[in-house]
Amino acid sequence: MITLRGLTKRFGATTAVDALTVDIAPGRVTGFLGPNGAGKSTTMRMVLGLDRPTAGRALVGGRAYRDLRHPLHEVGALLDAKAIHPSRSGRAHLLAMARSNGIAARRVDEVLATVGLDDRAAAKPGRTLSLGMGQRLGIAGALLGDPGVLMFDEPVNGLDPDGVRWVRHLMRSLAAEGRTVFVSSHLMTEMQLTADQLVVIGRGRLLVDAPVDEVIAGSAVAVRVRSPHPDGLVALAERLTATGASISSAAPDELTVTGVTADRVGDIAYELGVRLHELSAHGASLEQAFMELTADSVEYAGVPAGGDTR
Ligand SMILES: Nc1ncnc2c1ncn2[C@@H]1O[C@H](COP(=O)(O)OP(=O)(O)OP(=O)(O)O)[C@@H](O)[C@H]1O
């Protein structure tokens, strides 16, 4: 269990983490989401005692990191895949970690096997490791002490599709063993497949703490409309806006409508005599739910390509 209580971190005028109170429970994968700069890494660093909270507490199994008697046995983390000495091999890196924490050397071979690094890969010096190999090595380090709590910051960065699938299965099996698995990612589709629970933050504040299914169900279903008559679409957009729907348009012959059913859009188009070439409802996704949830908290919102939001 990871317990955050009023957790706050300020860097000068920037509030990176703002009074975050949440429990990350064992036995499931909790996805940690938020736009760039939302405060995910800072939160994880505070759990590991690498950053000191300005206020509040971050506890692992009810205790602050500095009070853990055998930290590596209680919490394992992958924060920065490149955190290995450039001239040291992956195996030597893990052996040093094992030695300084009273862990048997054979455990190094076990975790190397678990993450799929063979003898040759484990003998390579840190500077020659690819990002993907660095991620696997970092995960091996997190698993070394067989801890009950695991945190992974962007673990699939730099992995190929096989690697991404492997991480997904690993996270799920670690949670199935009853461990607490807290994982941040920018890949929404991946999170949709991996996580049971989601914690979403924006500008350091908690936006959502709920099961993945609930978060997705809460997002709007979008209706796509295409017509060969752009003027008709403008009239349709005006009428739909007047009924409270939200409209965006990526091209003159296309609208995306939320806040109203596809049937209603079809009825209004019929009343206005607008000929349609497409009227389709698109299921809610985590990607869309995330955009809706964090719309007010993105630091640098991009303008959608070709987007003309009315
Ligand atoms: N050491 C630091 N000194 C000053 N500001 C910092 C420091 N570390 C983080 N910040 C700021 O705190 C905020 C949160 O950063 P953080 O890296 O925790 O976000 P994040 O959610 O992990 O972002 P990303 O998804 O881009 O990795 C940002 O505005 C960042 O610039």
UniProtKB/TrEMBL annotation:
<keyword id="KW-0813">Transport</keyword>
<feature type="domain" description="ABC transporter">
    <location>
        <begin position="2"/>
        <end position="228"/>
    </location>
</feature>
<dbReference type="InterPro" id="IPR003439">
    <property type="entry name" value="ABC_transporter-like_ATP-bd"/>
</dbReference>
<protein>
    <submittedName>
        <fullName>ABC-2 type transport system ATP-binding protein</fullName>
    </submittedName>
</protein>
<dbReference type="Pfam" id="PF00005">
    <property type="entry name" value="ABC_tran"/>
</dbReference>
<dbReference type="InterPro" id="IPR003593">
    <property type="entry name" value="AAA+_ATPase"/>
</dbReference>
<keyword id="KW-0547">Nucleotide-binding</keyword>
<comment type="similarity">
    <text>Belongs to the ABC transporter superfamily.</text>
</comment>
<keyword id="KW-0067">ATP-binding</keyword>
<dbReference type="GO" id="GO:0005524">
    <property type="term" value="F:ATP binding"/>
</dbReference>
<dbReference type="InterPro" id="IPR027417">
    <property type="entry name" value="P-loop_NTPase"/>
</dbReference>
<dbReference type="GO" id="GO:0016887">
    <property type="term" value="F:ATP hydrolysis activity"/>
</dbReference>
